[in-house]
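Dear V.,

Thank you for sending over the compound details. I've combined the ligand you provided, magnesium ion, with the protein sequence from our construct and run the structure prediction for the complex. I'm sharing the raw inputs here so there's no ambiguity about protonation or stereochemistry in the SMILES, which I know was a concern on your side last time.
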Amino acid sequence: MDNQDDDGPILEIDKLSISFFTRLREIPAVMDFSAVIRPGEALGLVGESGCGKSTVALGVMQDLGVNGRIVGGSIKFKGEELNTMSPERLRDIRGSQIAMIYQEPMASLNPAMKIAKQLMEVPMIHEGLSEKDAYARALEVVTDVKLPDPERILKSYPHQLSGGQQQRIVIAMALMSKPALLILDEPTTALDVTVEAAVVELVKDLGKKYGTSMLFISHNLGLILDTCDRVCVMYSGEAVERGSIEDVFDEMQHPYTQALFRSIPLPGADKNARPLVAIPGNFPLPHERPDGCNFGPRCNYFEAGRCDRQVIDMTTSSRR
Ligand SMILES: Nc1ncnc2c1ncn2[C@@H]1O[C@H](COP(=O)(O)OP(=O)(O)O)[C@@H](O)[C@H]1O
Ligand SMILES: [Mg+2]
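Below is the predicted structure of the protein with magnesium ion bound, written out as C-alpha cells.
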C-alpha cells in the first residue's frame, strides 16, 4: 500500500468491460468504462436502472457471481491491480480497505446478533483489535451516524430498531474498518424521502471526517448533485459524460445528460418555468442496442444516416 505517493488515485478503472453469460448469449453489461477516484473524493455514478451501475461496483468488489466475468480492462486500487490479485489479498482488502453498502442494506445485518457484536467483529477480525478497543470504536461510529442513545443501540438486536436506524447501523458497520473506499449502491432506495435526505447528509459529513473516498451510485441525479464532487453519467453500459459537478451542471454536453437533467426537479427551480420532461422511449437492453449511437432512438438531435450508421464514441464529451 506504500508503493505509491499520497496523491495517487484510490481507484482507477480503465476501459473496463464486464459481461454476463447465459445459456443463450453474452450480455455485455459494461463496455469500455473508465473512472478515477482520488483521495477523499466522492464520485457519483448515475444513470437509468439497468445501465450497469451495480455491475461496475460488483466488478470493483470482484464479486460478479457465477455467470459474470470481467472481459477487458483494469481496476486498480491504490495502484494495485484487482483483476489479477490473489484471493487472500482480495479478501484482506475487501474486509479492511474497501467497504460496500448494497442495494438492500438491511439484508446485511444478522438478525440473531446484537449490534455491538456485529460491529466489533469487523476490526477484531481484520485488525486484531481487542474487545475493549473494538467496543470503543463501535461506540464512536454509532455516535457518528447520529443514533440516539448509542449504548442502548449497541445492546439491541436489529429488529428492535426502526428501518432508518438499521440503515445507519449498516453505514456504521461499513465505517468500522475506516475504509479508504466506500461504495454505496443505491443505499437509500428503500427509505422514505426525509430519511433519505438525512442519510445523504450523514454520508457526506462522514466522508469528510474519515477521509473516505466514495463511489456513490444512484439513479437519482439530484442526490448525486447534492453529495458528490464529481459525476459520471452512464448509459447502456458506457460512460457518456464525466466531470466535476459544477462543470457537468453548467454545461452538460451529452444529449443523454441533458435529457436526464430535464427529467428531474432541481433545487430552487420554478416548476412552471422549467417543466419536467421525461426521457422518451425505452432504454435498450444490452443485447438489443441499436446500430450507431446507443442513445440515438431517444435523442433530440437524432439524424438518420448520421447517428445510426457508424459506431459513435459515447465519451467524446468527457472532460478530465
Ligand atoms: N447476474 C446477471 N445475469 C445476467 N444479466 C445480468 C446479471 N446482473 C445484471 N445483468 C444485466 O446487466 C445489465 C446491467 O445491470 P445492473 O448493473 O444491475 O444495472 P443498474 O445497477 O444500473 O440498474 C442489465 O441489463 C442486467 O439485466
Ligand atoms: Mg443497481
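A first observation: The mean pLDDT is 87.

Warm regards,
I. M.
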